[in-house]
Design goal:
The structure is a single chain. The chain is mainly alpha-helical. The protein contains 8 helices and 5 strands, in the order ββαααβββααααα. The strands form 2 sheets. The protein has a 3-stranded mixed β-sheet, sandwiched between helices. The two termini are 33 Å apart. The relative contact order is 0.16.
């Protein structure tokens, strides 16, 4: 799931589906990323927040008239899940578990729900989230909705937009870009399944959700090597491996076996 390309975001050099280890420009900021990997970044913490706010304003302007009002049941459902995930993102043992670099960053979590048939959602740098109503029936329950939202919030928490800026500066061919994109999508799945578990949602629901997405696609996806997303089969296989680990980490945290 990605940001609609017709927004002004791509003009700013940001797309929230990209990334892997690659040689950065000399000016790119570098540090330890999720999983302990090296992660060059192209934006400061202040720039991330500013760019995210600007892009969010552009998106809401584009979809003006279709943003659901506060108090709408769909909005209440989405806000409830985002609120729990945002609280989980503040848990320091979780941040350490998945190597999130959040010190010095501000996440202003805010969500708007847009009446649109798109089966899509996205989260901008700094925490601004847009959910299209087309994805809500696919997420059969709040655990599956948490799968979607934790994945999107993981893109922001892992600074994937900033990393995309550094990668754009470094250059690279089309197939290299697609490989980076698939890597970041998989990384957001990995971070997201831990985030949803620590928020009290069932991480196994991530597997169920992507099985539903696979049925919805009806086998119409391109070969993985030609896609900017992992295949449904690959996604389901990895999530099935990660979900019990996320559950075990949450249980260890609840039992005090991970320092709070």
């Amino acid at each position: 799931m990605a940001i609609p390309t017709r927004t002004g975001l791509l003009a700013l050099g940001l797309a929230l589906v990209a990334g892997c280890n690659y040689p950065p420009d000399e000016g790119a900021r570098r540090g330890e990323g999720p999983g302990g990997r090296d992660q060059p970044l192209g934006l400061s913490a202040q720039e991330e927040l500013r760019v995210g706010k600007q892009a969010y304003a552009e998106v809401l302007q584009e979809y003006r008239g279709r943003v659901l009002p506060n108090g709408h049941p769909d909005v209440q459902r989405v806000e409830r899940v985002v609120g729990r995930l945002a609280k989980a993102a503040e848990i320091e043992p979780l941040q350490r578990e998945i190597h999130l670099r959040v010190r010095g960053y501000v996440f202003e979590w805010e969500v708007r729900v847009v009446q649109d048939r798109q089966v899509n959602a996205f989260c901008l740098p700094g925490g601004k989230i847009v959910v299209f109503t087309g994805i809500l029936p696919v997420a059969a329950n709040d655990d599956q909705l948490a799968t979607v939202l934790s994945h999107e919030m993981a893109h922001a928490l892992a600074h994937h937009g900033s990393e995309r800026v550094a990668r754009e500066q470094a250059g690279g061919g089309k197939f290299t870009q697609l490989r980076y994109d698939r890597f970041q999508e998989a990384e957001a799945d990995h971070v997201g399944v831990f985030l949803m578990a620590f928020a009290g949602y069932d991480p196994e629901a991530a597997v169920d959700f992507w099985r539903r997405m696979a049925r919805l696609a009806g086998g119409g996806e391109p070969p993985e090597i030609l896609s900017d997303h992992p295949s449904h089969e690959s996604r389901i296989r990895k999530l099935a491996d990660w979900a019990p680990r996320a559950r075990a980490a949450k249980q260890a945290f609840d039992e005090g076996r991970i320092s709070k």
